[in-house]
């Protein structure tokens, strides 16, 4: 594989991860992080960059589909996991794209309700999903470079024109807050989903390429894409931190991004950013609904009817959730993410480590442990933390909503090494 192929694949991966909805998260993180922006950025990039890229490396190793990530636990578990991931995708990140579009592009120009925006938005999504138009593929090639150019100008202008005064942090645990906010990008889930798309694309372009060649291509492209995400996310966090005293402390995520854009590049650039972000949001929604409909279609013997019904359900869910503001959707997403994200992270890591340390037995025990110790964090996210405080006080890191980490690691070490001894 030549450098051009690696560059094209890396940019494709970057574009798939670079969801427009994700852009509203780093600036507010930085805005509230103060002089500890670097610690927040480290945590955010750990869950929003490193783990997703490890997911791509796992795909380079497996060279299969999302189903292959969890099949070592059991085929039934893998199918259930896939259903849950797709259900979350069409219920939360897909509607969030409509909400971001309304707050950044529609509301500032027209005094229409978010419900009207959601209805029109997902009616168009449905038309594109059913007709599988290739227009979005063409438009998509110009969206990411356009957004990236404006963002780099915003970041560069902020860094080179503002004093490096960051204020004080508003977070009690900056590092873990960054990690948990990184969950909201859905990028780890995205890695499990879109990695399979990259595999299919490579196979279609060069069906004769060997396993090792494809693995090398995906690994190199993954690291380059990760570097791009790291630079953009960190740059936006620094930018938000530099504007810590320029906006009201309760400003929304979308308003903050728009406000920073206006202060650095003017209203014209902000208008362009709003349009580009809205178009990118739309392509993301179409991709999510199409991917979900394709999965259900495959489960029902390539039934066109199953595809249409899934597309309709996905768009209805989009309308119902998309009329709420971005902050509300992010809050609603937290419990689901507190449960599914640890499982996803563990599956990614188990598929990355050498196979001799990750037998079927290891997969079963580690995933089971992760599920059990994710329950307290899930209950805490829905306001039931006090009822189980007597239990959680004995779980390491539970105060940071990461009580699953050490138990899962301990079980991995014990079971993997005991399995090696048995051999």
From TrEMBL:
Location relative to the cell: Cell membrane
Topology in the lipid bilayer: Multi-pass membrane protein
Biological-process GO terms, alphabetical: isoleucine transport; L-leucine transport
Top-level taxonomic group: Bacteria
Single GO term (MF): L-valine transmembrane transporter activity
Keyword Transport: yes
Family assignment from sequence similarity: Belongs to the branched chain amino acid transporter family.
NCBIfam families reported in the protein's UniProt record: livcs (TIGR00796)
Protein name: Branched-chain amino acid transport system II carrier protein
């Amino acid at each position: 594989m030549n450098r051009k192929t690696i560059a094209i694949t890396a940019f494709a991966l970057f574009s798939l991860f670079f969801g427009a909805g994700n852009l509203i998260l780093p600036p507010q993180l930085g805005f509230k992080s103060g002089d500890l922006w670097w610690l927040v950025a480290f945590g955010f990039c750990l869950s929003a960059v490193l783990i997703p890229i490890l997911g791509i490396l796992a795909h380079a190793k497996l060279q299969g589909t999302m189903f292959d990530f969890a099949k070592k636990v059991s085929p039934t578990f893998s199918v259930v996991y896939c259903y849950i991931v797709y259900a979350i995708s069409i219920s939360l990140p897909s509607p969030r794209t409509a909400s971001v579009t309304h707050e950044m592009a529609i509301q500032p120009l027209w005094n229409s309700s978010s419900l009207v925006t959601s209805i029109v938005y997902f009616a168009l999504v449905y038309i594109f999903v059913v007709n599988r138009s290739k227009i979005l593929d063409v438009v998509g090639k110009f969206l990411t470079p356009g957004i990236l150019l404006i963002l780099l100008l915003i970041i560069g202008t902020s860094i080179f024109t503002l004093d490096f005064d960051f204020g004080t942090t508003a977070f009690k645990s900056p590092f873990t807050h960054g990690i948990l906010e990184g969950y909201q990008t859905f990028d780890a889930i995205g890695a499990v989903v879109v990695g399979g798309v990259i595999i299919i694309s490579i196979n279609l372009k060069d069906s004769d390429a060997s396993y090792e060649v494809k693995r090398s291509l995906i690994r190199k492209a993954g690291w380059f894409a990760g570097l791009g995400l790291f630079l953009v996310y960190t740059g936006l966090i620094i930018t938000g931190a530099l504007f810590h005293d320029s906006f009201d402390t309760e400003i929304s995520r979308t308003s903050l991004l728009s406000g920073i854009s206006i202060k650095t590049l003017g209203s014209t650039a902000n208008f362009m950013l709003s349009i580009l972000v809205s178009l990118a949001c739309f392509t993301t929604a179409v991709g999510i609904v199409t991917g979900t409909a394709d999965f259900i279609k495959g489960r029902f013997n390539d039934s066109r009817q199953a595809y249409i019904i899934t597309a309709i359900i996905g768009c209805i869910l989009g309308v119902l959730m998309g009329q709420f503001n971005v902050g509300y959707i992010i809050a609603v997403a937290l419990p689901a993410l507190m449960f599914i994200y640890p499982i996803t992270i563990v599956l990614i890591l188990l598929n990355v480590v050498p196979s001799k340390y990750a037998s079927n037995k290891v997969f079963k025990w580690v995933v089971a442990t992760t599920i059990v110790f994710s329950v307290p964090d899930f209950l805490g996210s829905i306001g039931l933390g006090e009822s189980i405080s007597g239990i959680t006080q004995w779980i390491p890191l539970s105060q940071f909503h990461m009580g699953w980490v050490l138990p899962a690691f301990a079980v991995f070490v014990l079971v993997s090494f005991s399995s090696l001894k048995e051999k």
